[in-house]
Amino acid sequence: MIPLMQTWRFYRTTNFTPRCFLLSAPTTRRMNKQVLVIGESHYLREESKKKGEPEVWYDGTAVAMLDDEDRSWIHTRGTAGSGEGQKYGSKAFGIYRNVEYAIQELLPDKTLPADNYLRYVAFYNYFQRPAKTGDSLKVTKQDKQIAYNHLLKLAEIFGVTHYAFVSKKAYYAFWDVHGNDEFSTRNIFGTAHPCTSWWNRSHRHDWWEKQIEMTGREWFMERIGKLKLNANHPSSGKSSGK
């Protein structure tokens, strides 16, 4: 993984339409697995909904239309990175709270900093166009293709080992576009949205040619497995013994 600022510079120099940036912390690079948790979409406030229409969003017109308030709504670090002690004030942030609880259980080392468990993974929203407040994104063919191309580019940069979709809409959109084996890992899976009842209700999950029954939360934890600091990383302060 590379620091968020370098990620931001990459997108600023290669894309001219507004992007819903990735949240990544230096700690993420030190983990034994490079986990990318993939949500669905950001939202624009009601009075700005016309700025999120596909024709103005993707042709670059929206860049000049967005004000500071609009940008704060699609700023991932300002939402997913705002938790203190895993307490998020808004119900809209329930996705981060529930994902954090699951990540907490995947960390056997209880001495690690606990102020924000999202420091141990990277997070971003799959669709690069925001939805209207109070409504799920009406996904177009263009949304799907741009989102897929965006993820391909992230894969090239970050060396992701586990793609954890926490939105079935995003997960199915990914497979709608996926053709050749462009991703180098089989560890691509989807769960129900952590804010839905299916996060804690047992249901069927398809894993290649298998069908497995468990809750969305259990499936998330099963597919990622234990997370720990990589003892071989130079910044860990530990010797590999070799």
Number of structurally distinct domains: 1
Beta strand count: 8
Summarize the amount of helix as a percent range. 25-40%
- How do the helices and strands follow one another from N- to C-terminus? HEEHHHHHEEHEHEEEH
Distance between the termini: 24 Å
User: What's the overall average pLDDT, rounded?
Assistant: 80
- Briefly note the structural class of the backbone: alpha/beta
CATH class division: Alpha Beta
Low-confidence stretches at least 5 residues in length (pLDDT < 50)? 1-18, 233-242
Stated plainly, the CATH topology is called: Uracil-DNA Glycosylase, subunit E
Strand order of the largest sheet: 3-1-5-6
User: What profile does the largest beta sheet have?
Assistant: 4 strands, parallel
CATH architecture label name: 3-Layer(aba) Sandwich
The proportion of residues in beta strands is 5-15%
Shape: globular
> What is the overall number of helices?
9
